[in-house]
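in:
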């Protein structure tokens, strides 16, 4: 994407219970060189402050997309906090014609529930493409491992494939 002129930002959701809200978005905003948000929260409810933050995040990303194409990658949504998922849904719902591509990853199982399922509805409503990935076949796995680990023994490749199913 970078070779094609995209500004690319990657955020990874953390399975650590100590990760702060919006953790993957911190990395995205850092990559977009967007700085921190200063929001006036005087007199607002917690819900309205959360919405204001989601909206500020969406406006920041969309503003970057007016400068050129932007690719946002959010990995491991199955570990995402509620605020991160709602921020993504708000961004998707407010994207119309911008040069913005969003790529997300999540585990296939268990099926999404709660806010993650709600995000799935939002993505479907906005014509997101869903691609199920499966593991590599044995030949692809061998080729990949031989490329990244020159000299790896066939026994190690076979053991890796047996253990992971090509994932």
């Amino acid at each position: 994407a970078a070779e094609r002129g995209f500004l690319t930002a990657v955020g990874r959701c953390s399975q650590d219970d100590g990760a702060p809200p919006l953790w993957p978005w911190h990395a995205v905003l850092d990559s977009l060189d967007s700085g921190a948000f200063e929001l006036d929260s005087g007199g607002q409810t917690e819900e309205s402050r959360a919405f204001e933050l989601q909206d500020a995040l969406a406006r920041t990303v969309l503003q970057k997309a007016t400068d050129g194409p932007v690719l946002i990658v959010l990995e491991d949504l199955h570990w995402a906090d509620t605020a991160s998922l709602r921020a993504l849904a708000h961004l998707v719902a407010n994207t119309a014609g911008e040069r913005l591509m969003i790529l997300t990853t999540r585990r296939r199982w268990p099926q999404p529930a709660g806010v993650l399922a709600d995000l799935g509805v939002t993505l479907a409503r906005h014509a997101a493409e869903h691609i199920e990935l499966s593991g590599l076949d044995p030949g692809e796995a061998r080729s990949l491992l031989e490329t990244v680990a020159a000299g790896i023994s066939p026994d190690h490749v076979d053991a890796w494939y047996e253990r992971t199913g090509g994932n």
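note: The helical segments are 23-31, 46-67, 82-93, 114-125, 138-148, 154-164.
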